[in-house]
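Hi support team,

I'm filing this because I wasn't sure whether my run with NAP finished correctly. The job status page said complete, but I'd like someone to confirm that the output block is well-formed before I use it downstream. Pasting the exact inputs I used:
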Amino acid sequence: MKILITGCKGQLGTEIQKQLRLGYSEIGPIPESLQNAEIVAVDLPEVDISKLEPTLAYIAEVAPDVVVNCAAFTNVDGCETMHDVAFQANAVGPRNLAMACEKIGAKLVHVSTDYVFSGRANGGIPLDEADAPNPISAYGSTKVQGERYVQQFCSRFFIVRTAWLYSYYGKNFVKTIYNAGKKFGKLEVVNDQLGNPTNAVDLAHVLLQLAATQEYGIYHCTGEGICSWYDFAAAIIAGGKVDATVAPCTSAEYKAKHPESADRPAWSALDNRMLRCTIGNCVRPWQEALEVFFQNWDGENGMK
Ligand SMILES: NC(=O)c1ccc[n+]([C@@H]2O[C@H](COP(=O)([O-])OP(=O)(O)OC[C@H]3O[C@@H](n4cnc5c(N)ncnc54)[C@H](OP(=O)(O)O)[C@@H]3O)[C@@H](O)[C@H]2O)c1
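And here is everything the job wrote out:
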């Protein structure tokens, strides 16, 4: 078994490599068929997934059984001004991987986002895999197109939408709030955007479980439970034992102070329905996963 991980230096790519090397995650063992798998991990600049011919040639040469695509342009605000660069990484890149996987019969595990949804009125019901994407940001629209290309060009695909992702490795909201809390002692965070904080441990664990199956399709995989960014920030300050206060603000107030920022969905809570209906949903409640994060995090870019 050979697994190729693209975007391997990011939050998720680093976590997946760790689980494959160890053979288990915080949640449990990885699938038997992936134990001792050969891992090929690549990132920019050596493998740029947005370049068609080099990507096709590289994947044909490596001949993986599974490609896990963790590569993406994830700066949501940056996507608004660098739309083409975002489209290359988030839409053209997955297309190239899909074509390459199809040629050699490999499975493609591709990661997408809750920001494919508009966040407008869903009557308080979490969005499931049957709900129609309708993005309101450049990031969301590039990720939707990536999803379409994967479905169009690859027959063995898993598209897994996650949200509000954080990890021991790389940059994320948890570390930003923790560090800003320590520095400023006082924070304001939006209280009218609701979603699901997701620990990369849970997501990586699920991606590997899926990769061992033929249960192809579109999946939602987010931490269990719904909260606002303000609730999440308050839990980070408490869990990280930071001496700081967090006050709620509205998206309109935030936008007035940061006019260049992308619009974000007000309601992007996802339901992991497809996981429940197939391999089972082992994703932890977000509060529990955050608590374990603070038990293990080294305060910088790794684990204790
Ligand atoms: N972060 C979140 O809150 C969040 C939420 C929902 C969904 N997601 C999705 O989850 C997945 C993993 O996200 P993450 O947070 O782990 O991302 P990340 O930490 O930003 O890592 C992405 C990696 O991909 C690399 N990359 C960018 N463009 C590339 C290209 N053209 N070819 C090859 N590699 C490229 C990046 O390199 P550079 O750093 O050098 O650019 C980086 O190492 C992504 O699909 C993302 O859209 C993330």
